[in-house]
């Protein structure tokens, strides 16, 4: 008996099947940071990609083995029903374990040389429905950030002239909404963008005279609603498990050394620099209070 004969067979949604081929692919996401006059580059690690599984199965009828006697008549129709409904269920990979997956594509090939079944190829992809909590937070709430962005942009367009700060606010809001296609980036990058947008809103509130003109009452109302949406978005994202913490520098340190201390990865120094204004990131004085993102486990 071989090693794989001792393992549980591959299955989807509790329906097992004997495969002739099974290929698992995965990887990690990263962003390359390159700096002038510096050898090599810094890789920002952005998390694991989704697992994907390509599997080939011969669904045969009239199999003598009682373990697979209903493979073609019963199990294939049940599987097809789940595929058509975009069902997410546990896919058991014999040498890895269970992963929540959905079958995104499949093919059923019939051949005149095989009159008792068909060859089926399936492509499964890992699915984590909870990841869409962020998209729901940004886009689907009654007074959502996305909705308020549109309304504020419409008021900006009514002005007879462009205001540079308003353009910057629009671009910052758009960059936050763009993350809906990159759910894995919703952590430190999103919080950094929200903090930057908040700073722009504060500047506009203090400096833009159009917001103090009674004739622009609709603009002011949209601006206030947008500010409220940004605050709510910030609070909602923090509830997803990301919060800020503070590290007191015990001695003069570089920002890379601080990142290595709090994240155990000096390459995340860029995250700390997004949150703090250092006079010299290569020599941060002792007793400096450094903000950083603390991730919930």
Describe what you observe in this structure:
It is a single chain. The protein has 297 residues and is of the alpha+beta class. It has 3 domains: 4-127, Elongation Factor Tu (Ef-tu), domain 3, CATH 2.40.30; 131-240; 243-295. Helices cover 36% and strands 27% of the residues. It is built from 8 helices and 11 strands. The strands form 3 sheets. The protein has a 7-stranded antiparallel β-sheet with strand order 2-1-7-8-9-6-3, covered by helices on one side. Strands 4-5 form a two-stranded antiparallel sheet.
What's the CATH architecture name of the largest domain? Beta Barrel
SSE topology string: EEEEEEHEEEHHHHHEHHE
Number of strands: 11
Q: Summarize model confidence as the mean pLDDT.
A: 80
Write down the Rg. 27 Å
CATH topology of the largest domain: Elongation Factor Tu (Ef-tu), domain 3
What gap, in angstroms, lies between the N and C termini?
Answer: 41 Å
Q: Which spans of ≥5 residues are poorly predicted at pLDDT below 50?
A: 132-142, 180-187
Short summary:
Helices cover 36% and strands 27% of the residues. By secondary structure, the chain is an alpha+beta fold.
Based on the model shown, name its key terms.
Elongation Factor Tu (Ef-tu), domain 3, 27% strand, elongated, 3 domains, 11 strands, alpha+beta
List the helices and strands and how they pair.
Layout: E1 11-12, E2 15-16, E3 19-25, E4 28-33, E5 42-48, E6 52-60, H1 71-84, E7 89-93, E8 97-111, E9 114-126, H2 133-139, H3 145-158, H4 164-177, H5 188-207, H6 217-239, E10 242-248, H7 255-263, H8 269-275, E11 289-295
Antiparallel strand pairs: 1-2, 1-7, 3-6, 4-5, 6-9, 7-8, 8-9, 10-11
